[in-house]
Design a protein that fits this description.
289 residues, alpha+beta, 2 domains, four-stranded antiparallel sheet, 10 strands
Length: 289
């Protein structure tokens, strides 16, 4: 476990390109010593969520899982060998004492660092993983292991380019003897239903996305807008494309995807093929001019 591996630092939550690099150990030290203590204490005292979010967005943030040329999955330069997990109050409503949970979780032998989140109403964990090339499969196994422990971890942490905002916790816990997490989970997927490939520009882009194996549907809003765009462009003929795109997500279920596409057909809104072109571009997938 090399806790001196570098990670990328972004000047704020909106930054697309990194401002600098630092080591995992330096990031943890910053959380402990509180370079941004004043801003974080202001967030924890603020009762208005919009005001809290505004301050939070100005704070530096890191891609704990590696160095990046750009903040997206395709921008990964080198994996750090670590994964960051978020546990928050929204998904763990039964937890009332997050400091207690922080102190308890450091005793999981794969946890390297355990600290309070920016809001103070949650904990983030930094853990080494055995095989960085299997980042998503390690996450899928971790998600299931933590459910057994009584915790729900934020599914957005499956994204290797996920940002972790700087926090402040003078009582954060660190374990230099943490053991790299070895388990992985492989999803079993039903056979693909046959589909008609369209030859227009959108059809060619969709074929390229599907063959790349990249998940564009990460996050409900993206998933819904992709479905609406396909409903507007192809009507019922877009259903098979929607299933193939949705299968890239770890929680894909055929019946659920069917229900979602039915909803998109009923209410397609103004989404168009441009929605899909824009999302694909964020992942570095474009048609040649």
């Amino acid at each position: 476990m090399d806790y001196n591996k570098n990670i990328s630092i972004f000047k704020d939550y909106w930054g697309r390109e990194p401002a600098l690099e630092c080591s995992i150990d330096d990031f943890c030290s910053n959380v402990y010593h509180g370079d941004y203590r004043a801003e974080i204490e202001a967030i924890r005292k603020e009762t208005d969520k919009a005001a809290r979010d505004k301050i939070k967005a100005t704070l530096p943030a890191a891609t704990i899982s590696g160095t990046f040329s750009e903040r997206k999955k395709g921008g990964l330069i080198e994996h750090s060998g670590f994964i960051c997990l978020d546990l928050d109050a929204k998904e763990n409503a039964n937890i009332t004492d997050w400091q207690q949970e922080r102190d308890k979780l450091i005793h999981v032998n794969n946890v390297f660092f355990s600290a309070l989140s920016v809001s103070g109403q949650g904990v983030f964990l930094i853990m080494p993983i055995e095989n960085p090339a299997k980042h998503e499969a390690h996450f899928d196994a971790l998600k299931r292991d933590f459910i057994k422990l009584g915790y729900v971890i934020d599914k957005a942490c499956r994204d290797v380019s996920r940002l972790r905002g700087i926090s402040y916790d003078p009582n954060a816990k660190i374990n230099y003897k943490a053991i790299p997490y070895k388990r992985t989970y492989q999803h079993r997927k039903a056979p693909l239903r046959p589909y008609k490939s369209h030859t227009d520009d959108l059809g060619r882009l969709l074929d390229k996305i599907i063959s790349s194996g990249i998940d564009l549907t990460n996050g409900y809003e993206n998933w819904f807008e992709i479905g609406r765009a396909l409903a507007n462009e192809y009507g019922e003929g877009g259903r098979s494309y929607f299933h193939r795109l949705s299968r890239g997500h770890s929680e894909y279920k055929e019946a659920e995807a069917d229900r979602q596409y039915n909803a998109c057909l009923r209410s397609p809104g103004r989404a168009s093929k441009g929605t899909i072109f824009h999302l694909a571009k964020d992942y570095g997938i474009m048609l040649k001019a």
